[in-house]
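User: Predict Type-4 uracil-DNA glycosylase's structure from this.
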Amino acid sequence: MSPTKHARAAEAPSRDGRAYDAGPYLPSRGGLAAHRRAAADCQGCPLFEDATQTVFGKGAESARLVLVGEQPGDQEDRQGEPFVGPAGRLLGRAVEEVGIDMDTAYVTNAVKHFKFTRPPGGGKRRIHKAPELREVAACRPWLLAELRLLRPEVVVVLGATAAKALMGSSFRVTKDRGALLPMPPGALDQDDQPYVVATIHPSAVLRADDRDSAYAGLVADLRVAASALDEAGA
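Assistant:
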């Protein structure tokens, strides 16, 4: 999706008549800490109403690698940190396997609030629900702000939602996964543009019938990102 189409999607009104747009909540100055504080009060789309809290990105401010998922899960929503559930643990293992220290990376999500539904008939269990296009578009300013502040060399988008948030609505992970891709024109207004690698979300590995094969595919894609970092640092 082009920046214009993202903006158009964010213009759709929310339940109280406001536009879906996190842009007005971004601070005009400051680093990641200032943005994290501002994001805590974001009401750029209705997802804030049911979520426990905003889950902003976390990691090294000098990170050369940024990993972008879809949205917080149940545990992330409760703890206020990204990738702390089963999918996060699997991702950490895969990243370490390709020779990247997770302590030197930065992890975040395309959408900063947990979207969920309840089981039919009620119950306390919260079931993940994929965010809508306008919710992804509304939250995109936070993701782009993180990337501008971090200035990473490689961004790994995990799954379809993260990939489309950054690469556009026509992007297909199944078609272009594991390739070293340029950042779309106009996404970031800076000279040093990061490369992008798309792969599956680690939660897809946990759901796969053949987990070993799915995990191997994730690791293979992450090796592309690791190789790009090695070449840049050589």
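Strands lie at 58-59, 65-69, 105-109, 116-117, 127-128, 154-158, 181-182, 195-199.
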